Amino acid sequence: MLRAAVEIADADGLQAATMRRIGESLGAEAMSLYYHVANKNDLLDGLVDVLMDEITEAVDGDRPADDWKQALRQRILSARQVMLRHRWAPGLLEGRTSMRPAVVLYHDQLVGLMRSGGFSYDLAHHALHALGSRALGFSQELFDPSAGAGEVSDRMLAELASQVPNLAGMLAEIAHDDPESTIGWCDDQAEFEFALDLILDGLERLNS
Amino acid sequence: MLRAAVEIADADGLQAATMRRIGESLGAEAMSLYYHVANKNDLLDGLVDVLMDEITEAVDGDRPADDWKQALRQRILSARQVMLRHRWAPGLLEGRTSMRPAVVLYHDQLVGLMRSGGFSYDLAHHALHALGSRALGFSQELFDPSAGAGEVSDRMLAELASQVPNLAGMLAEIAHDDPESTIGWCDDQAEFEFALDLILDGLERLNS
DNA sequence: TAAGGCAGCCTTACGCTGTAAGAACCCGAG
DNA sequence: CTCGGGTTCTTACAGCGTAAGGCTGCCTTA
Question: Residues whose CB falls within 7 A of nucleic chain C?
Fold first, then answer.
Protein backbone atom coordinates (compact mmCIF):
# COMPACT_ATOMS: atom_id res chain seq x y z
CA MET A 1 0.00 0.00 0.00
CA LEU A 2 2.82 2.39 0.77
CA ARG A 3 4.42 1.02 -2.35
CA ALA A 4 1.27 1.85 -4.31
CA ALA A 5 1.20 5.36 -2.87
CA VAL A 6 4.83 5.87 -3.83
CA GLU A 7 4.19 4.73 -7.38
CA ILE A 8 1.25 7.09 -7.76
CA ALA A 9 3.19 10.00 -6.31
CA ASP A 10 6.13 9.22 -8.59
CA ALA A 11 3.87 9.19 -11.59
CA ASP A 12 1.40 11.98 -10.96
CA GLY A 13 2.57 13.88 -7.91
CA LEU A 14 1.76 13.70 -4.25
CA GLN A 15 -1.61 15.38 -4.60
CA ALA A 16 -2.67 12.52 -6.86
CA ALA A 17 -2.14 10.00 -4.09
CA THR A 18 -5.65 10.19 -2.70
CA MET A 19 -7.19 7.45 -0.63
CA ARG A 20 -9.54 6.49 -3.43
CA ARG A 21 -6.80 6.36 -6.02
CA ILE A 22 -4.49 4.32 -3.84
CA GLY A 23 -7.30 1.91 -3.11
CA GLU A 24 -8.16 1.65 -6.78
CA SER A 25 -4.58 0.83 -7.72
CA LEU A 26 -4.74 -1.95 -5.14
CA GLY A 27 -8.08 -3.26 -6.33
CA ALA A 28 -9.75 -2.18 -3.12
CA GLU A 29 -12.04 0.54 -1.88
CA ALA A 30 -10.73 3.68 -0.24
CA MET A 31 -12.17 2.86 3.14
CA SER A 32 -10.43 -0.50 3.19
CA LEU A 33 -7.15 1.31 3.62
CA TYR A 34 -8.29 2.53 6.98
CA TYR A 35 -7.89 -0.90 8.44
CA HIS A 36 -4.15 -0.68 7.88
CA VAL A 37 -3.73 3.04 8.48
CA ALA A 38 -5.28 5.30 11.07
CA ASN A 39 -5.73 8.23 8.73
CA LYS A 40 -4.05 10.02 5.90
CA ASN A 41 -1.52 11.62 8.20
CA ASP A 42 -0.45 8.15 9.15
CA LEU A 43 -0.06 7.26 5.52
CA LEU A 44 2.08 10.31 4.83
CA ASP A 45 4.21 9.43 7.83
CA GLY A 46 4.61 6.03 6.24
CA LEU A 47 5.81 7.67 3.05
CA VAL A 48 8.38 9.62 5.03
CA ASP A 49 9.58 6.35 6.50
CA VAL A 50 9.85 4.85 3.04
CA LEU A 51 12.00 7.78 1.98
CA MET A 52 14.21 7.46 5.02
CA ASP A 53 14.59 3.74 4.34
CA GLU A 54 15.74 4.48 0.83
CA ILE A 55 18.16 7.08 2.11
CA THR A 56 19.58 4.70 4.68
CA GLU A 57 20.00 2.07 2.00
CA ALA A 58 21.71 4.52 -0.34
CA VAL A 59 23.94 5.79 2.42
CA ASP A 60 25.02 2.31 3.47
CA GLY A 61 26.39 1.78 0.01
CA ASP A 62 28.93 4.53 0.52
CA ARG A 63 32.48 3.58 1.24
CA PRO A 64 33.64 5.12 4.49
CA ALA A 65 35.24 8.51 4.05
CA ASP A 66 38.38 9.61 5.76
CA ASP A 67 37.32 12.97 7.10
CA TRP A 68 34.06 14.32 8.45
CA LYS A 69 33.58 16.75 5.61
CA GLN A 70 33.83 14.12 2.95
CA ALA A 71 31.60 11.81 4.97
CA LEU A 72 28.91 14.46 5.40
CA ARG A 73 29.11 15.34 1.75
CA GLN A 74 28.74 11.75 0.65
CA ARG A 75 25.84 11.11 2.96
CA ILE A 76 23.95 14.20 1.94
CA LEU A 77 24.53 13.66 -1.75
CA SER A 78 23.37 10.09 -1.36
CA ALA A 79 20.22 11.36 0.30
CA ARG A 80 19.82 13.74 -2.59
CA GLN A 81 19.70 10.86 -5.03
CA VAL A 82 16.57 9.67 -3.28
CA MET A 83 15.03 13.13 -3.61
CA LEU A 84 15.79 13.08 -7.31
CA ARG A 85 14.07 9.73 -7.65
CA HIS A 86 11.00 11.05 -5.87
CA ARG A 87 10.24 14.60 -6.87
CA TRP A 88 7.41 14.77 -4.38
CA ALA A 89 9.70 14.04 -1.45
CA PRO A 90 10.82 17.62 -0.76
CA GLY A 91 7.27 18.84 -0.72
CA LEU A 92 6.26 16.09 1.62
CA LEU A 93 9.12 16.60 4.04
CA GLU A 94 8.64 20.36 4.07
CA GLY A 95 5.04 20.12 5.07
CA ARG A 96 5.44 17.37 7.61
CA THR A 97 5.56 18.29 11.25
CA SER A 98 5.89 14.73 12.37
CA MET A 99 9.40 14.25 13.77
CA ARG A 100 9.55 10.64 12.62
CA PRO A 101 12.08 8.48 14.44
CA ALA A 102 13.84 7.70 11.17
CA VAL A 103 14.37 11.38 10.47
CA VAL A 104 15.63 11.98 13.98
CA LEU A 105 17.96 9.02 13.64
CA TYR A 106 19.32 10.32 10.37
CA HIS A 107 20.17 13.64 11.93
CA ASP A 108 21.68 11.89 14.90
CA GLN A 109 24.07 10.18 12.55
CA LEU A 110 24.95 13.49 10.95
CA VAL A 111 25.77 14.88 14.37
CA GLY A 112 27.77 11.74 15.03
CA LEU A 113 29.87 12.40 11.96
CA MET A 114 30.45 15.97 13.06
CA ARG A 115 31.35 14.93 16.58
CA SER A 116 33.90 12.46 15.27
CA GLY A 117 35.29 15.36 13.27
CA GLY A 118 35.87 17.30 16.45
CA PHE A 119 32.73 19.43 16.41
CA SER A 120 31.44 20.76 19.68
CA TYR A 121 27.79 20.03 20.36
CA ASP A 122 27.15 23.70 19.94
CA LEU A 123 28.72 23.86 16.51
CA ALA A 124 26.93 20.70 15.46
CA HIS A 125 23.68 22.27 16.52
CA HIS A 126 24.37 25.37 14.50
CA ALA A 127 25.37 23.17 11.60
CA LEU A 128 22.03 21.39 11.57
CA HIS A 129 20.25 24.70 11.41
CA ALA A 130 22.55 26.00 8.72
CA LEU A 131 22.03 22.92 6.59
CA GLY A 132 18.30 22.85 7.11
CA SER A 133 16.64 20.73 4.48
CA ARG A 134 19.91 20.50 2.63
CA ALA A 135 20.87 17.86 5.18
CA LEU A 136 18.29 15.65 3.51
CA GLY A 137 19.41 16.46 0.01
CA PHE A 138 17.14 19.20 -1.19
CA SER A 139 16.71 22.93 -1.00
CA GLN A 140 13.51 24.76 -1.63
CA GLU A 141 13.62 26.78 -4.78
CA LEU A 142 11.39 29.80 -4.76
CA PHE A 143 11.22 30.01 -8.50
CA ASP A 144 9.27 27.84 -10.76
CA PRO A 145 10.23 24.54 -12.23
CA SER A 146 9.82 24.91 -15.98
CA ALA A 147 7.25 27.72 -15.79
CA GLY A 148 6.99 28.85 -19.33
CA ALA A 149 10.73 29.25 -19.64
CA GLY A 150 10.40 28.42 -23.29
CA GLU A 151 8.46 31.29 -24.75
CA VAL A 152 10.37 34.41 -23.89
CA SER A 153 9.55 36.99 -26.49
CA ASP A 154 11.78 39.92 -27.33
CA ARG A 155 9.31 42.26 -25.75
CA MET A 156 9.48 40.33 -22.53
CA LEU A 157 13.24 40.39 -22.64
CA ALA A 158 13.18 44.15 -23.11
CA GLU A 159 10.83 44.64 -20.19
CA LEU A 160 12.93 42.24 -18.17
CA ALA A 161 16.04 44.23 -18.84
CA SER A 162 14.44 47.50 -17.82
CA GLN A 163 12.63 46.28 -14.75
CA VAL A 164 15.04 43.73 -13.34
CA PRO A 165 18.33 44.71 -14.94
CA ASN A 166 20.49 42.76 -12.55
CA LEU A 167 18.66 39.49 -13.00
CA ALA A 168 18.49 40.07 -16.73
CA GLY A 169 22.22 40.57 -16.88
CA MET A 170 22.75 37.53 -14.76
CA LEU A 171 20.54 35.34 -16.88
CA ALA A 172 22.19 36.59 -20.03
CA GLU A 173 25.59 35.67 -18.74
CA ILE A 174 24.68 32.39 -17.13
CA ALA A 175 23.24 31.56 -20.57
CA HIS A 176 21.65 28.49 -19.09
CA ASP A 177 23.96 25.97 -20.60
CA ASP A 178 22.59 23.28 -18.36
CA PRO A 179 20.68 20.94 -20.65
CA GLU A 180 18.55 19.07 -18.16
CA SER A 181 17.64 20.54 -14.84
CA THR A 182 17.30 18.04 -12.09
CA ILE A 183 15.09 19.61 -9.46
CA GLY A 184 13.28 22.83 -9.97
CA TRP A 185 14.36 25.64 -12.18
CA CYS A 186 18.12 25.53 -12.48
CA ASP A 187 18.86 23.75 -9.26
CA ASP A 188 21.09 21.24 -10.88
CA GLN A 189 23.60 19.14 -9.07
CA ALA A 190 26.29 21.79 -9.41
CA GLU A 191 24.22 24.44 -7.66
CA PHE A 192 23.34 22.13 -4.83
CA GLU A 193 26.93 21.08 -4.35
CA PHE A 194 28.12 24.66 -4.47
CA ALA A 195 25.83 25.68 -1.65
CA LEU A 196 26.59 22.54 0.30
CA ASP A 197 30.34 23.06 0.02
CA LEU A 198 29.96 26.70 0.92
CA ILE A 199 28.36 25.67 4.18
CA LEU A 200 30.71 22.79 4.87
CA ASP A 201 33.74 24.99 4.25
CA GLY A 202 32.35 27.57 6.60
CA LEU A 203 31.81 24.96 9.27
CA GLU A 204 35.30 23.62 8.80
CA ARG A 205 36.70 27.07 9.38
CA LEU A 206 34.70 27.45 12.56
CA ASN A 207 35.81 24.03 13.71
CA SER A 208 39.51 24.59 13.27
CA MET B 1 -10.43 40.94 0.84
CA LEU B 2 -6.72 40.20 0.81
CA ARG B 3 -6.66 41.97 4.14
CA ALA B 4 -9.37 39.64 5.41
CA ALA B 5 -7.47 36.61 4.17
CA VAL B 6 -4.32 37.80 5.91
CA GLU B 7 -6.17 38.27 9.17
CA ILE B 8 -7.65 34.81 9.02
CA ALA B 9 -4.30 33.26 8.17
CA ASP B 10 -2.63 35.17 10.97
CA ALA B 11 -5.21 33.96 13.42
CA ASP B 12 -5.87 30.37 12.39
CA GLY B 13 -3.33 29.43 9.77
CA LEU B 14 -3.34 29.45 6.02
CA GLN B 15 -5.51 26.37 5.69
CA ALA B 16 -8.25 28.22 7.54
CA ALA B 17 -8.39 30.87 4.84
CA THR B 18 -11.00 29.14 2.72
CA MET B 19 -13.17 30.95 0.25
CA ARG B 20 -16.23 30.46 2.40
CA ARG B 21 -14.52 31.70 5.52
CA ILE B 22 -13.04 34.75 3.82
CA GLY B 23 -16.42 35.58 2.39
CA GLU B 24 -18.06 35.15 5.77
CA SER B 25 -15.60 37.50 7.43
CA LEU B 26 -16.51 40.04 4.76
CA GLY B 27 -20.23 39.55 5.15
CA ALA B 28 -20.47 38.03 1.71
CA GLU B 29 -20.85 34.64 0.10
CA ALA B 30 -17.90 32.60 -1.07
CA MET B 31 -18.79 32.86 -4.72
CA SER B 32 -18.87 36.63 -4.52
CA LEU B 33 -15.13 36.61 -4.13
CA TYR B 34 -14.81 35.28 -7.64
CA TYR B 35 -15.78 38.61 -9.03
CA HIS B 36 -12.57 40.08 -7.66
CA VAL B 37 -10.34 37.05 -8.05
CA ALA B 38 -10.06 34.51 -10.82
CA ASN B 39 -9.56 31.56 -8.52
CA LYS B 40 -7.90 30.56 -5.30
CA ASN B 41 -4.49 30.49 -6.91
CA ASP B 42 -5.00 34.10 -7.78
CA LEU B 43 -5.87 34.86 -4.20
CA LEU B 44 -2.74 33.13 -2.93
CA ASP B 45 -0.70 35.08 -5.43
CA GLY B 46 -2.31 38.16 -3.96
CA LEU B 47 -1.18 37.09 -0.52
CA VAL B 48 2.35 36.71 -1.82
CA ASP B 49 2.15 40.24 -3.16
CA VAL B 50 0.96 41.47 0.21
CA LEU B 51 3.96 39.85 1.82
CA MET B 52 6.34 41.35 -0.69
CA ASP B 53 4.77 44.76 -0.14
CA GLU B 54 5.37 44.45 3.57
CA ILE B 55 8.93 43.37 2.96
CA THR B 56 9.57 46.28 0.63
CA GLU B 57 8.14 48.63 3.21
CA ALA B 58 10.28 47.15 5.97
CA VAL B 59 13.36 47.22 3.78
CA ASP B 60 12.87 50.85 2.80
CA GLY B 61 13.12 51.77 6.45
CA ASP B 62 16.68 50.54 6.60
CA ARG B 63 19.42 53.09 6.62
CA PRO B 64 21.83 52.49 3.76
CA ALA B 65 24.70 50.22 4.68
CA ASP B 66 28.28 50.80 3.71
CA ASP B 67 29.22 47.40 2.34
CA TRP B 68 27.31 44.77 0.42
CA LYS B 69 27.45 42.25 3.21
CA GLN B 70 25.87 44.54 5.72
CA ALA B 71 23.31 45.64 3.18
CA LEU B 72 22.33 42.09 2.33
CA ARG B 73 22.15 41.18 5.97
CA GLN B 74 19.93 44.12 6.80
CA ARG B 75 17.62 43.46 3.90
CA ILE B 76 17.22 39.80 4.66
CA LEU B 77 16.70 40.34 8.36
CA SER B 78 14.11 42.97 7.55
CA ALA B 79 12.34 40.47 5.35
CA ARG B 80 12.51 38.01 8.19
CA GLN B 81 10.55 40.37 10.40
CA VAL B 82 7.66 40.03 8.00
CA MET B 83 7.91 36.26 8.17
CA LEU B 84 7.76 36.44 11.94
CA ARG B 85 4.63 38.56 11.74
CA HIS B 86 2.99 36.05 9.42
CA ARG B 87 3.81 32.51 10.43
CA TRP B 88 1.97 31.17 7.42
CA ALA B 89 4.21 33.05 5.01
CA PRO B 90 7.00 30.46 4.73
CA GLY B 91 4.54 27.71 4.01
CA LEU B 92 2.86 29.81 1.37
CA LEU B 93 6.07 30.84 -0.36
CA GLU B 94 7.42 27.31 -0.31
CA GLY B 95 4.44 25.88 -2.06
CA ARG B 96 4.04 28.66 -4.58
CA THR B 97 5.34 28.12 -8.06
CA SER B 98 4.16 31.45 -9.28
CA MET B 99 7.24 33.62 -9.93
CA ARG B 100 5.43 36.79 -8.94
CA PRO B 101 6.96 39.99 -10.29
CA ALA B 102 7.42 41.31 -6.77
CA VAL B 103 9.47 38.28 -5.80
CA VAL B 104 11.55 38.53 -8.93
CA LEU B 105 12.09 42.21 -8.27
CA TYR B 106 13.20 41.52 -4.72
CA HIS B 107 15.80 39.08 -5.92
CA ASP B 108 16.89 41.48 -8.58
CA GLN B 109 17.67 43.98 -5.86
CA LEU B 110 19.63 41.38 -3.96
CA VAL B 111 21.68 40.71 -7.07
CA GLY B 112 22.09 44.46 -7.45
CA LEU B 113 23.55 44.69 -3.97
CA MET B 114 25.95 41.88 -4.76
CA ARG B 115 26.98 43.41 -8.05
CA SER B 116 27.73 46.69 -6.37
CA GLY B 117 29.88 44.69 -3.98
CA GLY B 118 31.95 43.41 -6.85
CA PHE B 119 30.23 40.06 -7.38
CA SER B 120 30.42 38.47 -10.78
CA TYR B 121 27.09 37.44 -12.24
CA ASP B 122 28.16 33.87 -11.78
CA LEU B 123 28.86 34.28 -8.09
CA ALA B 124 25.63 36.19 -7.59
CA HIS B 125 23.79 33.33 -9.24
CA HIS B 126 25.41 30.81 -6.96
CA ALA B 127 24.64 33.06 -4.03
CA LEU B 128 20.93 33.08 -4.79
CA HIS B 129 20.92 29.31 -4.83
CA ALA B 130 22.95 29.10 -1.65
CA LEU B 131 20.62 31.46 0.15
CA GLY B 132 17.50 29.81 -1.14
CA SER B 133 14.52 30.75 0.96
CA ARG B 134 16.84 32.40 3.45
CA ALA B 135 16.97 35.29 1.04
CA LEU B 136 13.36 35.96 2.01
CA GLY B 137 13.98 35.58 5.70
CA PHE B 138 13.07 32.03 6.55
CA SER B 139 14.49 28.55 6.46
CA GLN B 140 12.46 25.41 6.47
CA GLU B 141 12.79 23.52 9.69
CA LEU B 142 12.30 19.81 9.36
CA PHE B 143 11.45 19.36 12.99
CA ASP B 144 8.29 20.25 14.66
CA PRO B 145 7.27 23.56 16.12
CA SER B 146 6.27 22.86 19.71
CA ALA B 147 5.42 19.21 19.14
CA GLY B 148 5.03 17.92 22.63
CA ALA B 149 8.37 19.27 23.67
CA GLY B 150 6.96 19.72 27.13
CA GLU B 151 6.31 16.21 28.35
CA VAL B 152 9.58 14.36 28.08
CA SER B 153 9.51 11.59 30.62
CA ASP B 154 12.62 10.00 32.07
CA ARG B 155 11.89 6.82 30.14
CA MET B 156 11.83 8.79 26.92
CA LEU B 157 15.07 10.46 27.81
CA ALA B 158 16.66 7.11 28.47
CA GLU B 159 15.49 5.71 25.15
CA LEU B 160 16.60 8.88 23.49
CA ALA B 161 20.06 8.57 24.92
CA SER B 162 20.44 4.99 23.78
CA GLN B 163 18.97 5.37 20.31
CA VAL B 164 20.14 8.81 19.30
CA PRO B 165 23.08 9.41 21.59
CA ASN B 166 24.53 12.26 19.59
CA LEU B 167 21.34 14.26 19.47
CA ALA B 168 20.68 13.48 23.12
CA GLY B 169 24.08 14.77 24.06
CA MET B 170 23.57 17.81 21.93
CA LEU B 171 20.20 18.60 23.42
CA ALA B 172 21.54 18.13 26.91
CA GLU B 173 24.31 20.60 26.30
CA ILE B 174 22.32 23.13 24.35
CA ALA B 175 19.98 23.04 27.35
CA HIS B 176 17.49 25.04 25.40
CA ASP B 177 17.90 28.26 27.21
CA ASP B 178 15.94 30.11 24.59
CA PRO B 179 12.74 31.21 26.26
CA GLU B 180 10.58 31.96 23.30
CA SER B 181 11.20 30.40 19.94
CA THR B 182 10.33 32.60 17.05
CA ILE B 183 9.75 30.32 14.12
CA GLY B 184 9.62 26.59 14.38
CA TRP B 185 11.37 24.50 16.95
CA CYS B 186 14.46 26.34 18.07
CA ASP B 187 14.99 28.42 14.97
CA ASP B 188 15.36 31.58 16.90
CA GLN B 189 16.94 34.70 15.58
CA ALA B 190 20.41 33.60 16.61
CA GLU B 191 20.23 30.39 14.61
CA PHE B 192 19.00 32.16 11.54
CA GLU B 193 21.69 34.79 11.75
CA PHE B 194 24.35 32.17 12.31
CA ALA B 195 23.44 30.35 9.14
CA LEU B 196 23.06 33.59 7.22
CA ASP B 197 26.44 34.87 8.30
CA LEU B 198 28.02 31.53 7.53
CA ILE B 199 26.83 31.84 3.96
CA LEU B 200 27.65 35.54 3.63
CA ASP B 201 31.15 34.97 4.98
CA GLY B 202 31.64 32.15 2.52
CA LEU B 203 30.52 34.36 -0.33
CA GLU B 204 32.80 37.15 0.80
CA ARG B 205 35.74 34.79 0.70
CA LEU B 206 34.86 33.69 -2.81
CA ASN B 207 34.47 37.31 -3.87
CA SER B 208 37.80 38.51 -2.62
C1' DT C 1 -37.08 60.86 -17.66
C1' DA C 2 -36.60 56.27 -19.46
C1' DA C 3 -33.54 52.59 -21.04
C1' DG C 4 -29.64 50.08 -21.10
C1' DG C 5 -25.51 48.23 -19.29
C1' DC C 6 -22.66 46.44 -16.21
C1' DA C 7 -20.44 45.98 -11.63
C1' DG C 8 -21.28 43.35 -7.72
C1' DC C 9 -23.42 39.84 -5.17
C1' DC C 10 -26.19 35.59 -4.50
C1' DT C 11 -28.16 30.75 -5.38
C1' DT C 12 -27.72 26.32 -6.71
C1' DA C 13 -25.16 22.43 -7.82
C1' DC C 14 -21.14 19.38 -8.99
C1' DG C 15 -17.10 16.71 -8.25
C1' DC C 16 -13.50 16.11 -5.34
C1' DT C 17 -11.41 15.29 -0.77
C1' DG C 18 -10.87 12.66 3.96
C1' DT C 19 -13.40 9.76 6.92
C1' DA C 20 -17.31 8.16 10.56
C1' DA C 21 -20.48 4.18 11.19
C1' DG C 22 -21.81 -0.06 10.46
C1' DA C 23 -22.83 -4.15 7.57
C1' DA C 24 -20.86 -8.04 5.03
C1' DC C 25 -17.46 -11.36 4.06
C1' DC C 26 -13.86 -14.98 4.62
C1' DC C 27 -11.47 -18.36 6.95
C1' DG C 28 -9.34 -21.04 10.53
C1' DA C 29 -10.52 -22.98 15.41
C1' DG C 30 -13.65 -25.34 18.49
C1' DC D 1 -21.60 -26.48 11.88
C1' DT D 2 -20.88 -22.45 14.46
C1' DC D 3 -18.35 -19.02 15.93
C1' DG D 4 -15.04 -15.10 16.24
C1' DG D 5 -12.34 -11.76 14.57
C1' DG D 6 -9.44 -10.01 10.97
C1' DT D 7 -10.41 -7.72 6.59
C1' DT D 8 -13.21 -5.50 3.25
C1' DC D 9 -17.20 -2.99 1.37
C1' DT D 10 -21.33 0.28 1.51
C1' DT D 11 -23.31 4.29 2.53
C1' DA D 12 -23.13 8.82 3.96
C1' DC D 13 -21.51 13.42 5.46
C1' DA D 14 -19.07 17.77 5.80
C1' DG D 15 -15.96 20.67 3.70
C1' DC D 16 -13.26 22.15 -0.23
C1' DG D 17 -12.87 24.95 -4.89
C1' DT D 18 -15.73 26.50 -8.42
C1' DA D 19 -18.92 26.34 -12.94
C1' DA D 20 -23.34 28.45 -14.47
C1' DG D 21 -26.58 31.56 -14.27
C1' DG D 22 -29.88 34.93 -11.98
C1' DC D 23 -30.91 39.15 -9.25
C1' DT D 24 -30.13 44.05 -7.83
C1' DG D 25 -28.87 48.79 -8.01
C1' DC D 26 -26.21 52.56 -9.63
C1' DC D 27 -24.43 55.26 -13.74
C1' DT D 28 -24.46 56.58 -18.15
C1' DT D 29 -26.62 58.14 -22.27
C1' DA D 30 -30.40 59.32 -25.45
Answer: A 17-21, 30-31, 34, 39-41; B 23, 27-32, 34-36
